[in-house]
Amino acid sequence: MIAKEKLVKIVGAANVSDKPAALDEYSSDISFVNPVRPTWVVKPKNTDAVQKLIKLANKTQTPLVPVSSGPPHFRGDTVPGIGGAVIVDLSGMKKIIFVDRARRVAMIEPGVTYGELIPAAAKEGIRINMPLLPRKTKTVVGSMLEREPVTMPKYQWDISDPLACIEVIFGNGNEFRTGQAAGPGTVKEQWAVGGIQKAPYGPGIASWHRLIQGSQGTMGIVTWASMRCELLPSLEEPFVVSSSDLDTLLDMTSWLIRLRMVNECFILNGTNMAAIFAKKWPKDYQAIKDTLPAWTLFYNLAGYEYYPEERISSYITDISQITRRLGVESVKSVGGVSANEILKAVQQPSPEPYWKLRYKGACEDVYLLTIHDKLESLIGEMNDLADKAGYPASDMGIYIQPIVQGTGYHCEFNLFYDPANSSESNRVKELSAAAVKGLMAKGAFFSRPYGENAGMILNRDAATIGVLNKLKGLFDPNNVMNPGKICF
After folding, report:
1. How do residues 40-96 score in pLDDT, each as one tens digit?
2. Candidates 3.30.70.330, 3.20.20.80, 3.30.465.10, 3.40.228.10; correct CATH number of 96-231?
3. Which one of 9, 184, 198, 313 has the fewest CB atoms closer than 10 angstroms to its CB?
4. 194-214 pLDDT, tens per residue?
5. Reported pTM
6. What is the 3-state secondary structure (H, E, C) of the chain?
């Protein structure tokens, strides 16, 4: 165990806490991971402090759990896996290092939230490719490291996008920079000669950023990251298309992205549409849900500096040919929710209360990657599993996000439940485990394993576990970084 005075020497007395309320905040979350109380919470303000904390942890064999986003947490990765841990809260590292419109890139520290970066980027005329309605306390770096799907697949060229370069302090205490940031020279020396930290690949032929993404803080602590950004449109025109036939909307989505006509593009079922856009609970929720069809496709057309009206007009003409062929119609509202309202919502963080908590107070997410041909059968399997578990399929939210130029899909099942109802909580917990097992058997790919289901997912591939443990031994030989997570 680390003595308090040693932590104070690194981060200052005001940034070290063992108050019961502070420790309780990090001891559990909305997931079903068993609660474990940390020993200390520390809040470093710079890279030097982070590096000193990791070196001290190695000397004292103290586990560290890095956290950048504020509560509520959902996946169990920020809850200590073992006792005696120190929470390294990075939320105070809030510097926006630069925003570069000419090269469409921004660099930030790990504590910067979407609500803080969006206006800073807009001021320079660019925008970030962001996930669907992140909570207000969600940090941009945290989201990118978790590989959360983004709403503009047109600009996602790789599953790691929009992450570019990172600086990480590995569990062995060594500082490392990935991609263009690796060198030659320091980052400041690169800036001096016009260098920018945008390309993520390298150093060498390896894509080192992939080792950090999805690692849940088990390899090291990221102290800054850069990301690819896009130009801010001068004109936007959103639409919705509704149908009871999901395959029709998937076909339309495929064409919209393949022809590179749309920016934001995703599909929600009626439950999620109502959960997001109901204003008065519970009256509005049920009213919206009752008037909505089973599925709603949202897409947004954008025009830029040159001939924006003409560009959007040509898109509308081309899309009308697709809708006629598929027998659907692009309209400006559905179920009392306008396309403009949806656009305004999805370009910002979720207002409070966070949309996943509005319906019943808690939510367990089951999400996977798949392809067009398997998607409907996987949704059918999930509905069957929900029925067997006694969970009403009509209460289950579904979010379908095309990814990487529309080559695949992120499919997310949102299981809303009342955390004060133990039988309901247990039902959802059992359904979550059964869903992972059943969906894997049907060909679903779980690329982001969290919590109690991580072992079930990873144990299907012993070779991968072996490689991961070898890498863990190289970069965190004393296993101080978030032990007990993934397969460590």
Report:
1. 999 999 999 999 999 999 999 999 999 999 999 999 999 999 999 999 999 999 999
2. 3.30.465.10
3. 184
4. 999 998 988 988 899 999 999
5. 0.96
6. CCCHHHHHHHHCHHHEECCHHHHHHHHCCCCCCCCCCCCEEECCCCHHHHHHHHHHHHHHCCCEEEECCCCCCCCCCCCCCCCCCEEEECCCCCCEEEEECCCCEEEECCCCEHHHHHHHHHHCCEEECCCCCCCCCCEHHHHHHCCCCCCCHHHCCCCCCCEEEEEEEECCCCEEECHHHHCCCCHHHHHHCCCCCCCCCECCCCECHHHHCCCCCCCEEEEEEEEEEEECCCEEEEEEEEECCHHHHHHHHHHHHHCCCCCCEEEEEHHHHHHHHCCCCCHHHHHHHHHCCCEEEEEEEEECCCCHHHHHHHHHHHHHHHHHHHCCCCECEECCEEHHHHHHHHCCCCCCCCHHHHCCCEEEEEEEEECHHHHHHHHHHHHHHHHHHCCCHHHEEEEEEEECCCCEEEEEEEEEECCCCHHHHHHHHHHHHHHHHHHHHCCCECCCCCHHHHHHHHCCCHHHHHHHHHHHHHHCCCCCECCCCCCC
